[in-house]
């Protein structure tokens, strides 16, 4: 039995559901945050809202 259900919208009528333990959910969030930080820090990226 999972402690956390994560629902991801994969398309207009498709959804992916991940049933994870709390530890797995924490690892997923850490991995996503790390990847987002890496993408945002890439040289040459223009900040949202800048002109």
Order of helices and strands: EEH
| Relative helix content | 25-40%
Helix and strand composition category: alpha+beta
- Relative strand content: 15-25%
Task: Describe the sheet with the most strands.
Answer: 2 strands, antiparallel
CA-atom Rg in angstroms? 15 Å
Low-confidence stretches: none
Number of distinct helices:
1
Q: How is the largest sheet built, in terms of strand order?
A: 1-2
Beginning-to-end CA distance, first to last residue: 49 Å
Number of strands: 2
Mean pLDDT: 86
Q: Per the principal axes of the C-alpha atoms, what is the gross shape?
A: flat
Reconstruct the topology from this structure.
Layout: E1 4-9, E2 15-20, H1 22-40
Structure report:
It is built from one helix and two strands; from the N terminus they run E-E-H. The chain is of the alpha+beta class. It is flat, with a radius of gyration of 15 Å. The mean pLDDT is 86.
Keywords:
2 strands, 51 residues, 37% helix, single chain, alpha+beta, 1 helix
Short description:
With 51 residues, this protein is an alpha+beta fold. The protein has one helix and two strands, in the order ββα.
